[in-house]
Design brief:
Length: 310
């Protein structure tokens, strides 16, 4: 996410009547300049690698949980080559309890590819970013926009919710990103690169702080007077049921407990130590098999397990 260190500059095309984002750009970017959080990955010293690390960590994880892990990560691995030089299991260990630990392996894989293909520098080209292992459509656009100030639509959950309400007039976006949402994001993107990168960061922050999923703050929103959903009387969501985030008793919880044992151990762990963390043997075995299949755990002879070394 970009740092709110410069005053917003608006493209000359912002006055063009056919741009559907005309009335939205300036108030949202100006609001961002005054209200954006001071986050470490928005500071100039973070650099492109710091931006990339933050984007991996922030997927499905709140900022409050990411901050301490992010700081420790960058202190230990300030450049991609530093991470690439270590075993992937060390990335899993340092990931701690952020959840979805396959992201740690993907970030390690991206760091290795950056070191091998790009001389250790996060590539500036969007296509090169997208070609890195573990980098999808969203992350490539986010790094290109937030780290390099390029013009790309950046569609995370917060942005999608802002666009759904302000433009489409519905309470929530679909459960998965649709072609219609991508088309809308492209239509709303300012023509000027600097303005576009500011818009990407500003619309994301608006969704994170004001236009939230549960407690929208319309009285503080810079585009409340233009919001199609508010003007329609805030109709209730009538689409497919929204997916919950259940955790207790799931395989995800068991996987987390098993990984916690392995993260805390610096020598191979016997099966008996893993058996103690969960009472139900079938679910425990399924979770462990899943961790092995995902490359997060390496089985050894004699019933021992460890984090992966390669």
């Amino acid at each position: 996410m970009t740092a709110p260190t410069k005053p917003p500059h608006h493209s000359s095309s912002a006055a063009h009547d056919t741009d559907p984002g005309d009335a939205l750009h300036a108030p949202v970017i100006d609001w961002f300049a005054e209200n954006a959080r001071d986050l470490p990955w928005r500071r100039p010293e973070a650099g492109p690698w710091g931006v990339m690390v933050s984007e991996f960590m922030l997927q499905q994880t709140p900022v409050s949980r990411v901050l301490p892990v992010y700081e420790q990560w960058l202190a230990r691995w300030p450049r991609p080559a530093d991470l690439a030089a270590e075993a992937p299991g060390e990335a899993v260990r340092a990931w701690g309890r952020l959840g979805y630990p396959r992201r740690a392996l993907r970030l390690h894989g991206a760091a290795a590819a950056i070191t091998e293909r790009h001389g250790g520098d996060v590539p500036t080209d969007h296509a090169h970013l997208l070609a890195l292992p573990g980098i999808g459509e969203y992350t490539a656009a986010a790094v290109a926009s937030f780290a390099y100030g390029q013009r790309h639509p950046v569609l995370d959950t917060n942005v999608r919710r802002v666009f759904a309400r302000a433009v489409t007039g519905v309470q929530y976006p679909p459960n998965a990103t649709t072609a219609a949402e991508r088309k809308l994001a492209r239509a709303l993107l300012p023509d000027d690169e600097h303005t576009a990168s500011r818009w990407a960061a500003a619309s994301m922050e608006l969704g994170a702080l004001i236009c939230t999923a549960k407690n929208e703050g319309c009285h503080r929103c810079p585009i409340a007077a233009l919001c199609a959903w508010r003007l329609a009387g805030k109709p209730e969501h009538d689409g497919p049921p929204r997916r919950g985030q259940t955790y207790a008793g799931t395989d995800r919880q068991v996987r987390g407990k098993l990984l916690a044992v392995l993260r805390e151990a610096h020598v191979p762990v016997p099966q008996s130590a893993l058996d103690r963390v969960w009472h139900e043997p079938v679910q425990r075995a399924r979770a462990l098999d899943g961790l092995v299949s995902d490359g997060l755990v390496e089985p050894l002879p004699e019933g021992l397990y460890r984090l992966p070394l390669s």
